[in-house]
Amino acid sequence: MEKSFHITTFGCQMNEHDSETLAGMLLERGYVQAKERKDANIVIFNTCSVRENADKRFFGTLGQLKKKKMEQGENFTVCVCGCMMQQQHIIDTLKAKYPWVDVIFGTHNLHQLPELLDNLYREKEKQLAILPDREEIVEGLPSRRLFQHKAFVNIMYGCNNFCTYCIVPYTRGREKSRKPEDILREIRSLVEDGVREVMLLGQNVNSYRGQSDDGSVTDFTDLLYQLQEVEGLERIRFMTSHPKDLSDKLIQAFVDCPKLGKYIHLPVQAGSSRVLKEMNRRYTREEYLKLVEKLRTAVPDIAISTDIIVGFPGETEEEFEETLTLCEAVRYDSAFTFLYSVRKGTPAEQYEDQIPEDVKHARFNRLVEVINRISAEKNAEYVGRTETVLVEGPGKTGGKTFSGRTASFKLVNFRGTPDMTGKLVKVRITESNTFSLVGEAAGPEA
Ligand code: SAH
Ligand code: SF4
Ligand code: F3S
Question: Is the pLDDT of residue 446 over 60?
Fold first, then answer.
């Protein structure tokens, strides 16, 4: 029987890229990828521990598969992986309530999926592989990209920051940087395969420190300058950088490296220095605002996005309003907003003064209103300009609409032709919305 698989991914780009790797490994071994979950005989869930309600959604969707598993037994395989598997209470719940799940593996055991499936079929026994962390980085894994012309590339794994609300340091382990030569080799071969844009991934990319075999050390900015030289690569982006590590050297790289997109995601989390201290963010409101000023002085048209948490334990009304005034001062191009929610095992779980849900929601709505108003105003400034857009392909609305991104990462929809996909095209912006721009193709990039 043909073995077909389907992967459902929750969470961030890190997980999306892990799913690309899972797909790459299975395709290499002759499995085929099903378009929909219902058509697959191997179903994989790649889970997240952060995003709002991700765990509820995961258990809900997983539960729906029980009937099929009971009916089809060995002919239907259910695998679960990702950040949630690094939390003991999740494993306990799976064992107690979902004992029919066939394969469970953690974030440090990703590369073992083919082997775990082989074992399952051979031994007819459930498989569990979870390491708390891993010293060495597994290189050379294949990947089935979501997009033809852009690729995610991990430059580092894990996080050492221990923000008090965050589960990531526990689910992804300690910081580890890949060797620069491994990253360059991967990116050169991606470019040969048609990739024009890379998104460098890490929980905190600006603490990247890659050590080469000859002992030399490459920091994040050095890496950017090296990538700038890769022929055929048009754009470089990265995610995420922590404000505490945003150096003058990195700001200068935005000036020196034309391939570096004029865009930075710089999570602020809160506008009050007291709350930031409780969060263990290691910068103050003033220091953050100073950074933004430096960025804008060096690169006046840089787009800035952020992550914000509302309702952190103990956040007062005045402190929340400091988040609003910070947003007005920075004028973010866009922001991901989160309602604070307790994560088991994090320091903030123990904090008193958890904020009532209705208060959190009311603050959240006020914040979103400010954020959206500013996003719309920022986008309106683009009307009349001509932007260089890297075309991603047909837009979501179909027809002759194509979509792509400006250097500042703005989504642009315009009438285009299929041959534009993967190319840099000049687009004159004619309209703006809160989350996107509309334009007219004005010819290829000179
Ligand atoms: N490493 C990245 C992303 C971490 S997770 C960074 O530090 O920026 C993505 C976002 O989820 C965080 O920036 C934060 O805004 C949000 N988040 C993390 N834990 C949360 C929690 N317990 N409650 C609400 N939002 C949270
Ligand atoms: Fe990504 Fe964080 Fe979710 Fe893991 S827990 S998938 S790192 S958002
Ligand atoms: Fe790390 Fe980011 Fe959390 S830097 S501790 S993952 S918010």
Answer: no
